[in-house]
Design goal:
It comes from Planktothrix tepida PCC 9214. With about 150 residues, this protein is of the alpha+beta class. The chain is built from five helices and six strands; from the N terminus they run H-H-E-E-H-H-H-E-E-E-E. The chain has helices at about 10-25, 35-45, 65-70, 75-80, 95-105, and strands spanning about 50-55, 60-65, 110-115, 125-135, 140-150, 150-154. The longest helix is centred in the first third of the chain and has 18 residues, at about 10-25. The chain is globular and about 40 Å long. The N and C termini lie far apart (about 35 Å).
């Protein structure tokens, strides 16, 4: 299997992630220069957890960097076929849905924290999370992403 960050669709998605983050926050998610592929590789191996999902009725994860794959204990193939709601336990779905709706309305939300669950049922608290709307090349909403560098296993 080709490395995720070498795939044309992921290289394009990486550009959307970075551009949308800067659009909403005025900040740079990752200070990296180089070819689009080099930037995609740097983001994939960045020292923070980064995930995103699309805009399907039950949104499917469409990106997770190496830290995210390790945290949720998933392969790329497993992660990118999973509804994003499955990253959290059923009892916190209502709060998660409110957060995503707030993000959709405001563009981004800072300082979120919540309990998530890995594929082997390990629970962990993600902290200092920033969630933002992803925009395509026409500035149309095409998903949401979340980044965090703080998490604690419970």
């Amino acid at each position: 299997m080709i490395k995720p960050w070498k795939q044309d669709t992921i290289i394009l998605h990486t550009q959307r992630l970075l551009r949308s983050y800067q659009y909403w926050t005025g900040e740079t998610l990752l200070d990296v220069q180089g070819t689009p592929e080099a930037v995609a590789k740097a983001l994939f191996y960045a020292p923070f957890v980064l995930v995103s999902h699309g805009i399907e009725p039950d949104p499917i994860l469409n990106y997770g960097n190496q830290k995210a794959l390790e945290l949720w204990e998933l392969t790329w193939e497993e992660l990118t076929q999973m509804p994003s709601r499955k990253t959290a336990e059923p009892m916190v779905q209502e709060a998660r849905n409110r957060l995503l709706a707030e993000t959709e309305a405001k563009g981004f939300v800072r300082n979120y924290q919540g309990v998530r669950i890995s594929s082997s049922r390990k629970r962990f608290l993600i902290q200092d999370v920033l969630i933002w709307n992803l925009l395509d090349e026409d500035n149309q909403r095409c998903g949401q992403a979340a980044v965090s560098s703080q998490y604690t296993f419970l």
